[in-house]
């Protein structure tokens, strides 16, 4: 049974699952917050959510300009600077203005990659995230990240993985950085375990086991799943895998772009009898005190929109 939002990974509440209206075609479920973000990008989702998979939803949200809404919650607002025009003289001596907007910084790229992993980080590791600019090579892509404690020395920071290595980073309060890395080529296995409120990640190498306590219950499993395909791979194998992954991503984007938009017709509308039955259920839940007036009104509006 799904207990986490397929898009943001936050635990699902009874409001997210009570009517079964947030379910995707591949079985994933969206929380109401992510559903609202998605429907703001594509209004067709109000009545056709069950026809879309999580891959299509993520593509819609990212391509719809919602990256900033899904970014790390503690990310500060940045001042937008407009590039100054550069005067260019043509052979005919006429003057034209050419604008050269700033390209995304390396830190922007890293933060976008963090967003793509779906990881949730607190404001306490902002300095470690910024330090990744100095830790990662220019061509390294981040595929997993989690916040936690390195049990070998009890330092707290972030453990990240690229397609080549697993790295633990701790930015000390009075300056300086502790960094320890484990090349995936030398890693024999990565295992995870889950407790009541946290999880444990173990990285096995020749003669040494690195153990991390992660502060989110699902973090260790998500991290382990992300790195499994890269364990024990040589540099040549990794490059080949990167090319294959890029081609697969391009094919998925083409499928999404070429997919015809669902037509608005009477066949896509829910049967009135079903809508009225669900409205009756909502009314009983409100009378029982399970739903507040605001929650009742919100769910009622969604149902009436399908008539």
From TrEMBL:
Query: Could you tell me which residue ranges the YokE-like PH domain spans?
Result: 136-228
Renumbered to this chain, the Low complexity biased-composition regions fall at 251-264
Residue ranges of domain SHOCT in the record:
277-304
Against InterPro entries, the record matches this protein to: DUF4428 (IPR027872), SHOCT (IPR018649), YokE-like_PH (IPR039519)
Under Pfam families, the record lists:
bPH_3 (PF14470), DUF4428 (PF14471), SHOCT (PF09851)
Q: Please state every residue range assigned to the domain named DUF4428.
A: 4-44
Q: Where is this region: Disordered?
A: 251-271
Protein's recorded name: PH domain-containing protein
Lineage, top ranks: Bacteria, Pseudomonadati, Bacteroidota, Flavobacteriia, Flavobacteriales
